[in-house]
Structure formats: structure tokens, C-alpha cells
Amino acid sequence: MALFCNFSIFPKPFVPSCSSQKTQFSNQNTKQDSIFRIKGPAALSGHITISGSKNSSLALLAATLCCSGSSLLHNVPNISDIQAMASILSFLGAKVESFDGKMMVNSDGVDKVEVDSEEMKKIRGGFFVIGPLLARFGEVVVALPGGCDIGKRPVDLHLRGLRALGSVVELRQVQDGKVWAHAANGKGLVGGRFRLDYPSVGATATLMMAASMADGITVLSNVAKVMIGGIPTDEPEVVDIAHFLNHSGALIEGAGTGTLVIWGKSQLYGSECVIRPDRIEVGTFMIAAAITRSCISMSPAIPSSVSCLIDKLSEAGCKISQLDQHTLRVSAVPAYVGDDLRGFGIKTSPFPGFPTDLQPQIMALLTTCTGSSLVEESVFDNRMTHARELQKLGARIQVSKSSAIVFGKDEGSSLCGSPVIARDLRGGASLILAGLAAKGTTEIHKIEHIERGYEKIDTKLQILGADIERSTPLPVLV
Ligand code: UD1
Q1: Are 265 and 339 part of one and the same domain?
Q2: Which one of 12, 252, 270, 420 is separated from 104 by 20 to 30 angstroms, measured CA to CA?
């Protein structure tokens, strides 16, 4: 962990000495209509570098709103969700600079409590700003968040938790159902007790940030965590937030245990941290090796954050080795592991269960394994739309509500290139993986969904030997 979260405190405004080119963020919209064209089947080999975690970065960018002075985040991925979050912070009045994979945020100039709705609707993580703004200014107005369309994604736990910290929360239906929250005492939040009905990652993040600046002590229970065999296991993104806030002057105890005790502070100070590697990107490339029956290595990776996937791929027959502390190698080369990978079942659940964000990619893999496999989605209630697109590529999949039976290559699945549509971020990634395994050309449309969460995925796959290109259709003149 120390390697990836190397925190230090900057009590005074931090001024980077780096002379590299900086990007100043503003809330401008960009429109993309490129497609990915993949010629398969691909044989991959070599090594790729994993980018920083999207979800940790989003939460930590919001957490910088709690801090006076500058915060410096290292290893922030250059993806559109992060750009959208940077735009939200800029809109509020924060100064956001990006250079060499780092982001520096100074929120001293924040002077708005109402977030731009258009930016807010682009990403789920934008909603994280509700906690810091409410705690700092005693009032906030935010639109309900966007993000992937993967089912009902209520924010009731965020709002009920904020009420437990002394705020009044109203849903304004005037325009698009905005949330208006203000401190009941007219000043700021006060410590309280709140038990989450479900260990929501997002609600845990919101309430940690809010409680860090509340007056008094807050106890949050059933937060995103899990015990394995009696040993507390950290929900990675939640622990990152706790570390960042603590290094910024907050006092949070119990990260990883299911109960957080937070002593609120009136002032937090900007600090510096290194974002951990994205475990979902690690998992996606591990599955890329498996689906193409190839051997690739990747770093930096934290093996314990993908232990569930390691178990499942090993069960299928892949050979997974840890080359050093932060390098994983996955081999599914037939000469070493045999001609076939065996199908296996998965059921998604909160960390350290099987990650819902890897369910679509696993579904693509299972179409190339032997036998039939059961995929159960228990976190989100409508996260199966990629099955329809995989079917266009020749997959045989039967979906029933939140479960799917995936028939393997000996039971009717046979992947063959075709035009398909990325309907959400991880579903789009599953189409790339299927396209790599399919015979012929796969064209993936709406790749802006994929680029929300994967940094240069086409370039990384090209480095590994894939025939994938981005192409932008010429504009039609009317
Ligand atoms: C985060 C991640 C997302 C990941 C998910 C689960 C970000 C930006 N996104 O999403 O990539 O797939 O964790 O690991 O970090 N729920 C409620 N009420 C609430 C909040 C959540 O009922 O107030 C429910 C949701 O509908 C869902 C479940 O809790 O069924 C899990 O959601 P949650 O852990 O909050 O996921 P997100 O934070 O939205």
C-alpha cells in the first residue's frame, strides 16, 4: 500500500516546480462519435502499464473541496469521467490544473453551492461533491447524478446519512428533480450516527467527506467493507478516501472494518497522494489474456484487489503468476494450459466479492469457454444489456432478469465480427474483448462510453499486438 498511497501534507498552498504543459479545465462540452474497429482473432503478448483508479480519483477530486490550499493527486487517469469531474470543480470556482498524469486542485476560490446540471448528469461520481459543499457552506444544490444506465441507482442512503448529520434535504422538482440540502442550524453539519442499509461505496464516500468537517463525532456503520474469515478487508476506494482525508487533517478510524468513527474538524488542509492502480482495468486486461488465449503481464497491480478474479480465471485453467510485488502475468496459451478453458459461475457482490464492474467482461470470456455458465448480477438491477450486443457477435446467452446462462463454444456460441453498440462503460469493454476473440471485423459504436473509464485502451491493446483502430466517420454535409 505504501507504494501507492504515499501521502504528505502541504499546509501551505502547493506550487509545483514542474515546467510541463498544463491544462486548465473549464466546463466545456466535447462531442465524440468515433468507433473502434477490431480485426480478430487477436494474439496478444507483452506488458502494459495500468492507469490510476477512476473511482478513487473521482472521490478524491471531490474530497479536495474539503481542503483549504492545494491538493496534489498523482497517477490520475486521463479519461472523460475525470475531465467531467474537473469541469464540475472548475464550475464551482476551484482552480484545477493537470500535468503529467497529476492533478492539482485549489478550492479556496469556490464560491458556488449549486452544481452545473449538465456536467452533473454525465457522471455518477459528480454527486460526491454534495458532502463537501454541504459541510463547508451549509447549503448545496445538485442535480441527481448520471453515469452508466445499469439499473435504478438511488441516492437515498447519501441523503438519509446527510440528514443524520443535521441537514434538511429536499428534492426540488422544479427542474429535473434537483436535490437541495441545507444545514438545519443554518451553519454547518453536526456529528451523528448512521447505519447504511447496504454497504454502498458512493454513500460511504459522501458521508465520510461530510462527517470529516461536521461539528462533533460521527459513527457510520455497515459502510463498504467486508470481513473474510474474521479478518477485515479493505474496500479499496473507501480506504483511499479515508487515507486522503486523514492526511489532510481529518481523524477517521476503522477504515476497512465496517464501522467508521470520524472526529469532525473545522478545517482540512490540502495534501498529496498517489492514486492506486485501477483494479477494473487490471481485471479487464487479465480477461483479455484469457479470451485471446494469450500471455500478457501488467503493472502496477495490487493482486489482493483482484483476488476473486484470480480464483475464477485459475478455475477456468489460466495460469496466473505474480512476477513481483506489483506485476501480474496471465497465461492462457494453449501449449501451456491446454486447448480449452472451462466455464465457471459468478455472482457479483460488494468487495471482496466478484466485482459488478467485471461482470460484462467475464460474460464475454465465458462464451469462449466450454460448458454453460451461470452469471448472476446482485449489485445493479439492469446490468445485462451487453448480452444483447454479445449475441450480435454470435454469443448464445439466455438472460432472465439479473441472471444469464452463457453457453460456451461447445454449446452454440461462436464469435464472429459484426457492428455493435457500447451501451455503458463496462459493457463496452466486454465488446472490445469479444471483438478481439471474434473472427473478422467488429465495429464498436458509441465508444465514448468506454472512454469514460479506460485510458488509451486502443493504444494499450495495440502495444500488445491487437489490430484495433479508432476511426472517426467523416462529417456528413447537408
Ligand atoms: C460505485 C462505482 C461503480 C461500481 C459500484 C459498485 C463510482 C463512481 N462508481 O458506484 O463503478 O460499480 O460502486 O462497486 O465509484 N444504493 C442504494 N441507495 C444509495 C446508494 C446505492 O440503494 O443511496 C444501491 C445501488 O442501487 C446499488 C448498490 O447500492 O444497487 C451499490 O451501489 P453503490 O455501491 O453505491 O455504487 P456506486 O457508488 O453508485
Answers
A1: no
A2: 252
Active-site annotation holds for 148? yes
Which atom number of ligand 1 is nearest to the Cα of residue 200?
34
Q: What is the CATH number of the domain that holds 309?
A: 3.65.10.10
Pocket of ligand 1 (CB under 6 A): 55, 58, 124-125, 152-158, 198, 200-203, 356-357, 379-380
User: Taking Cα atoms as reference points, which of 179, 163, 168 lies closest to residue 211?
Assistant: 163
CA distance 140 to 210: 12
| Total structural domains within the chain | 2
- The residue to mutate among 153, 308, 386, having the most atoms of ligand 1 within 8 angstroms of its beta carbon, is 153
Residues 428 and 311 in one domain: yes
**In ligand 1, which atom is closest to the CA atom of 237?**
15
Regarding whether 317 and 262 lie in a shared domain, the answer is no
Claim to verify: residue 59 and residue 73 sit in the same structural domain? yes
Least confident of 238-247, 295-304, 357-366: 238-247
Mean confidence (pLDDT) of the chain: 89
Residue range of the domain that includes 320: 35-51+277-471
Residue 152 CB neighbour total at 10 angstroms: 7
Could you identify the atom of ligand 1 that is nearest to the CA of residue 351? Answer: 14
Cα(144)–Cα(180) distance, rounded to whole angstroms?
10
Catalytic residue among 5, 18, 67, 148: 148
Q: Are residues 265 and 346 in the same domain?
A: no
Please state whether the peptide bond connecting residue 352 to the residue before it is cis, i.e. omega within 30 degrees of 0.
Answer: yes
CA distance 284 to 22: 30
Calculate what percentage of the chain has a pLDDT beyond 70.
Answer: 88
- pLDDT tens readout for residues 156-189: 999 999 999 998 988 776 556 788 999 999 889 9
Q: Residue 449 falls within a domain, yes or no?
A: yes
